[in-house]
Amino acid sequence: QVQLVESGGGLVQAGGSQRLSCAAPGRTFSSSAMGWFRQAPGKEREFVAAISGSALRSIYADSVKGRFTISRDIAKNTVYLQMNSLKPEDTAVYYCAVGRTINTLGDYWGRGTQVTVSS
Q1: Residues 26, 13 contacting (CB under 8 angstroms)
Q2: In whole angstroms, what is the distance from residue 45 CA to residue 79 CA?
Q3: What pLDDT is stored for residue 68 in this prediction?
Q4: Gap between the Cα atoms of 37 and 101, Å rounded
Q5: Considering just the CA atoms, what is the radius of gyration of the chain in Å?
Q6: Which H helix or E strand runs over 82?
Q7: Are strands 113-118 and 10-13 parallel, antiparallel or unpaired?
Q8: Across the strands, what pairs with 71?
Q9: Which of 17, 41, 50, 72 could serve as 102's disulfide partner, Cβ 3.0–4.6 Å?
């Protein structure tokens, strides 16, 4: 069974920064897209960002454009989400996902990491 392990969540003040990581121990996803989703209390899970297998293409939700940056280290089989200028509305559980393309994520999911932004 594929396991994606997220880390880097926690409590941060509004305006601050945080970096999330997602690793896939023992599994190679060098040809797969990877990305991030989030789910706030009482809301549906929503797309945040994705990056292609080659890392040449990335896409973002409008709500995070200019503030969040997705990247990946193919050799380490890890994807990152650098979050800057955080807002209270960014508070959510953040999930890592893998898929064939950046538009078809969801073949595998992590268990999530909580990010809480205080005002």
Answers
A1: no
A2: 19
A3: 98
A4: 15
A5: 13
A6: strand 78-83
A7: parallel
A8: 80
A9: 50
Percent of the chain with pLDDT over 70: 99
Q: How confident is the model at residue 57 (pLDDT cuts 50, 70, 90)?
A: very high
Residue pointed to by tokens 């005002």: 119
- pLDDT tops 80 at residue 2: no
Q: What tokens appear for 75 in the block?
A: 């050799």
Strands 68-73 and 78-83: antiparallel
What does the pLDDT look like over 4-37, one tens digit per residue?
A: 999 999 999 999 999 999 998 877 888 899 999 9
Query: What whole-number distance in Å separates Cα of residue 42 and Cα of residue 37?
Result: 15
pLDDT, tens digit, 9 for 90 and up, residues 33-42 = 999 999 999 9
At 89 the three-state DSSP class reads: helix
Please report the pLDDT score of residue 91 as a whole number.
98
Residue labelled with tokens 């979050």: 83
* 85 in Cβ contact with 13 (< 8 Å): no
Give CA–CA dist 85/116, Å, rounded: 13
Q: Which amino acid is at 29?
A: F
